[in-house]
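Board notes (copied after class):
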Amino acid sequence: MNAPHSPHVGTPPLSRRAEALGTENAFVVLAEVNALLRDGKDIVSFCIGQPDFPTPPNVQDAAIAAIRAGRHGYTPSAGIEELRVAVAGDMGARRGLAIEPDEIVVGAGAKPFIAYAIASVTDYGVGDEVIYPVPGFPIYESQIVANGAVPVPIYLREARDFAFDPAELEAAITPQTRLLILNTPHNPTGGILRAQDLDAIAAILARHPHVWVYADEIYSRLAYDGAFESIASRPGMRERTIISDGASKTWAMTGWRIGWCANRALAPLFTRWITNTDSCASQISQWAALEAVCGPQDMAEAMRMKFRERRDLIVKLLNKVPGVTCRTPGGAFYAWPNVTEACALTGCADSEAFRKRLLHEAGIAVLADIHFGRRVPGDGQHIRFSYATSNDAIEEGVVRLAEFIAVASRR
């Protein structure tokens, strides 16, 4: 086999793993948007998935207090004991589970645990398979490939409110399956796995005890219609489920880089991964997260209610735009409208062409479905709006969308 090419003349070659490593296109598009903004362009951006609120003041104050108290050094790789105790209680209470502090590992955000989990339960290049949702957070597939496992997509279908058909899961599991990734509430569709979905998944997995589950529940506090439910609460699922959550979305702490996961068997291994990579999460961020979990929740709840209000607004407005239909997402802060007809009306070959024209002709920044994996067969074209922005921006953005479609349709 030929060695991978080097990106620069005179430098040694890169690994196949490095050259195959994917990215998160929200950041790629954001860079494009920022370049246009620097050039004086007027852009309404819906591309980045992070709360547009400040971190609650009590959390900020806790971080300042930690700095003033000299809490600047390393912590245990699994995290400070106080935070692990608090997270265990909080995660358990919201899922109806008894989670112990020694099951909790704190990391530099929840994202690293995706890689740690895949690396811990699959081996490189031996055909181990990981089932993951499509459309889905792009880092799932990126890390599956980088870790030398086989990515096996399971499609989230619009007709099922962006859940998958349990029969398709049953068909996808093989003796080589090592891990199933679940994400609820879901990025990019905002879909939620309902109680009956989780029951069906657990029943299937009961017949396949060799499969681990990675439950990405980073949006667990941003469920709008009914209580959040976790696959880990189903019979037989507790020990084999890696529950992942964190501070980023709930308390507007994306840049603080603080997240956590729970699994008794894998906690020691995840701790070693952190020792090998980050040493530990930022001590200052850990003390801030402790206040976020244990302190007043009024601002977090206010953010959740504001997101729900924005959800209702953007869905209502999008469904008034000719050529666009949008289901009501159950959680997170994303809308996933179907723009198949809008693409046809405007002469766009697909959602990516539509996205590019929206950016450069209408001044609207969104992401296309192909930024979240292959398109779901038979489900048409979609784009993602992050409604983690103001009501005024939502209204202006949808007006621009409607005007673009109206003008482009007459050409």
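Comment from the instructor: The chain has 14 helices and twelve strands. The two ends are 51 Å apart (CA to CA).
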